[in-house]
Amino acid sequence: MIMLKEKPNMDYIEQLAGDDHLFKQKFITILQEEFPEEKKEYLHNINNDLSREAALNVHKLKHKLNILGLHKSYRLAVQYEEELRLGDTKLKQDFSSILETVETYLKTI
Amino acid sequence: MNCIIVDDETAARAIVSQLCTTVSDLDVIDEFSNAIDAIKFFNQHTVDVVFLDIHMPGFTGFDFVQTLKNSPKIVLTTSDKNFAIEAYEYESIVDYLVKPITPERFQKCIQKIKNTLVQQSQTSGPEGTGSGIGGELYINIDRRLIKLKFSEILFIEAKGDYIDVKTEKETYRVHNTLKKIKEKLPEDIFLQIHRSFVINFTKIIDIEDNSVLIEKNVIPISRSNRPELMRRLNLL
CATH 2.40.50.1020 spans which residues of chain B? Predict the structure, then answer.
């Protein structure tokens, strides 16, 4: 569970935004809106044994992990996405923990 | 330069859009969450650069690239490095950006696009004109460079803001002026005989009063151009 030691951060977003505070706020709002929707869709698919569809959801979600500086979690997501395409869900719990971490973080910023 | 952004993720589009704001001569003219809408837009607008996500539901980035007939410069954006080799099979794909895209990498990409456009303009000459290389001319039509041998060209006719380049097989409409194309043509073969016509001198079948016949086309000779035409004739 190495990835759980990671903490989300705003480094990348701040690098992108520079002094553009408007962009930073707009981007945070996008994440706060888009992430729960993608998570909801993922949970629906994974809980209904639709692993290939869930793989597509993981593909989208993993991009946000990178944005939030969760690079180890991102690598786990890459592996999970590949395994889901083959119907293997053994990383489901680890990925769920990552999603919870991100969701909690997004509520604090 | 203008560009569009095609990505099904709002956050990803926002990142590319923000990166584009750092380039003074790059305007984002629209954003699309799917490739189909982008193609519809593309069919009605001139787009220089497309930032294109590969992974999109239904219609992928590669489907998009294959669909375009007159391809702009395409930059693929993806979180998957595995498509890089496939990407470089397409001539229109100039770069491949792995998400999350850093500002430094984006600047390199922009420089790459600019270099490509400069190389292209050096090959094709100004928009809609031709570039003479040896015994041939390249004309730029809908971003496609078409090679015409001088010997294939019968005549060129001015049509308002356009010129029609008439060959034995086809007529090509090019957005340019008669004056500019004339500068690209060898003077020993081509001659202006009317304010709207430059002809391939070697293609004349006969001359009658104030017109010349080239294939089945009767082309007028203006009074002011007639002396030069007559001077060039190898009269018996």
Answer: 130-232
Range of the domain at A98: 7-14+21-108
What distance in Å separates residue A16's CA from the closest CA in chain B?
7
pLDDT, one tens digit per residue, over B181-196 is: 888 888 878 899 999 9
Residue B102 to residue A15, Cβ atoms within 8 A: yes
pLDDT in tens, B115-152: 887 776 555 544 444 444 447 788 887 777 888 888 88
Return all residues near B187 (Cβ < 8 A) that are at least 6 apart: none
Helices assigned H by DSSP within B32-151: 35-42, 61-67, 84-87, 103-124
Interchain CB contact of B10 with A (< 8 Å): yes
State ipTM: 0.90
Q: For residue B19, what is the nearest residue in chain A, using CA coordinates? A: A16
Structure pTM?
Answer: 0.66
Hey, what CATH topology would domain B130-232 get? OB fold (Dihydrolipoamide Acetyltransferase, E2P) (2.40.50)
- Amino acid at site B47: V
**Under CATH, to which class is B2-124 assigned?**
alpha beta
